[in-house]
């Protein structure tokens, strides 16, 4: 620990703590523009400067470690004038009209200017040249609004290990963007939207599709249904002033009905469906691996007594990243479209390891335009499916050419949480006054296991709840059905589950220890992949979510998202799960009815493969 004073207040902090973080500990907020929590400070904007006794120049507090005996002043005239000058210079070249900007009243530069009392700009000169990049399905870049803070660069490179954006040229000519100042569709961008989530201004935003939804609702022949991802219910309230982690499920349903949707459904329904298919796929892969094992553990009672370790080694010996195996291990989850694109770009050799299950969003679209449409006596093209997602990559996912199992595009429009918030505001709906309402049948019923899809580790936990009960006939023997080692915000998490007392038809799994891993943020996924390829780690099943914290930290969620906000949303989702009567996907009666009436050949059957499964495409990085 070291001692210092900040504005004459004594404070003790761990060695290595920055002045910025030390100030927070004693209740002082220092404004920033380029700083992103948890990432290496670049000190690019100079808004966070402070005065340090004995130092000749002002110091960037985000990058300077506190030192023993240091005396820091955060609010002297010199500091205030320096900050004002920096912000005035940024405003002088910022080419954007606040009145019509997407970030109006949600802009950190605008808020900082107001906080510093800037009422006119002292510097007059050339504005940054405006150029709009609409080349991708999910994101829009406006170079005229960019303030070169480099937040997007940091998150894309450090958090996501993608590196699609980088500063080019120098001085006033600096451009933040893809190589050679090309459009975003020319590089390996996974469309995760984390750049849009951290951008302090309107330089990178999601592609707004609100008008597309209004047009669909206005057309009398359309039957417009909406699905809401599990993460939305723990974040939408923030658009209306509620604290992070406030559950607004019932009000959200009410608002969607008042917007004019003909049916309000839940992506959780197909999250449960995903678990049924994905759990069976995992068990099928394990069965195939053991059947291919040179030890011949299948149908050989003497060899079935092999030690647990021998079984695990032989599973991996026969099928671990074996591209000639029909079902290689480990199996990776496939719910996150940003993760799918990351693998297609950077690790196409691992495509066979991806689960063939579509994401819950895409499963829902296929089911809504076939099963649900048949119940209404309508054709698929008469059903318009709108998704409310925490993720900008979902806008890209629904436009993949293979996502047309219904004979037309399965999901028509995707709105982010932020876009839904704007739509509700625009309709004049008083969110606070709304009653709590229930989702519609049949695609609105879901289990708590589906809710936790929103959190990092949630897909894995939901799958384990079902897979364990399928093979043993018993409930997962863990407190509250939670697999504690894979919960929380650690970047990479692991768990082991010994399978004992299995049903006769699953005897080949007796004594096997299921090894699983969970990663959130693509940089952490890269770490897991490296450990697998090097042989350092061996897993049966790996969950990857592209965004930090999972979907609750998606690129389309209300800004600004830090770990405190992520944790609040995660806790809310667990409360939603624990408050439900149904806690396991295979207990959802509406999903079971879907299999009985429509997917009659069962999980992994011919019809489910046509509607609910897909394949992936290696992509050129340049």
Describe the structure.
The protein is α/β, with parallel strands linked by helices and 622 residues long. The protein folds into four domains: 74 residues, Ubiquitin-like (UB roll) (Roll); 85 residues, Alpha-Beta Plaits (2-Layer Sandwich), CATH 3.30.70.20; 134 residues, Rossmann fold; 231 residues, 3-Layer(aba) Sandwich (Fe-only Hydrogenase (Larger Subunit), Chain L, domain 3). Helices cover 34% and strands 12% of the residues. The protein is built from 19 helices and 18 strands. A five-stranded mixed β-sheet has the order 2-1-5-3-4, with helices on both faces. Helix 8 crosses helix 9, helix 8 packs across helix 11 and helix 8 packs across helix 15. The radius of gyration is 26 Å and the shape is globular. About 5% of the residues have low confidence.
Task: Give the mean pLDDT.
Answer: 92
Q: What structural category arises from helix and sheet content? A: alpha/beta
- Classify the fold: give the CATH topology of the largest domain: Fe-only Hydrogenase (Larger Subunit), Chain L, domain 3
Measured distance between first and last alpha carbons: 48 Å
Shape: globular
What is the highest CATH level, the class of the largest domain? Alpha Beta
Helix content: 25-40%
From the alpha-carbon coordinates, what is the Rg to the nearest angstrom? Answer: 26 Å
Number of strands: 18
> What fraction of residues sit in β-strands?
5-15%
Tally of alpha and pi helices: 19
- Are there runs of 5+ residues with pLDDT below 50, and where? 294-321
Largest sheet report: 5 strands, mixed
Q: What's the arrangement of strands in the largest beta sheet?
A: 2-1-5-3-4
Count of folded domains: 4
Superfamily (CATH H level) name of the largest domain: Fe-only Hydrogenase (Larger Subunit), Chain L, domain 3
